[in-house]
Amino acid sequence: MNFTIHPVTWHDAEPMLRAVREAVFIREQSVLVELEWDGLDETSHHVLALSSTGQAIGCGRILPNAHIGRIAVMPEWRGKKVGTAILEGLLAYASSRHYPEVDLDAQVQALPFYRNFGFIEEGEDFMDAGIPHRKLRMKL
Predict the structure, then answer these.
(1) What is the model's pLDDT at position 1?
(2) Is residue 47 part of a domain?
(3) Are residues 47 and 60 in contact, defined by beta-carbon separation less than 8 angstroms?
(4) Where does the chain have alpha helices with state H?
């Protein structure tokens, strides 16, 4: 199963980014629509994963303040390194912008994934959109 990763703007790729996030966050994880669409997408840098047939299969974003978020992979593509490629794309962007560090709020079930990249956990678990999360940070 081949896929590619593309840096995109919200303006150019909104329908595909929305499709992935609606499927994963809103339908699968029951995140409220008003929480998902927070108004920060237009100023964020996005990474979009596409299958070899051009189908949107994953995405993620980084805000101007170096906060990574909204990493989502369609269920049938999980375990195939799509999330890894998305995070690598976001970290490469952060490095190219000379950010000294990045942070993110990870779903607790995804902590091992982020630890593999060198993210360090901070503080206690907290609830976000009804899902347990923990703050993570990584120096670049």
Answers:
(1) 66
(2) yes
(3) yes
(4) 10-21, 33-36, 82-96, 111-115
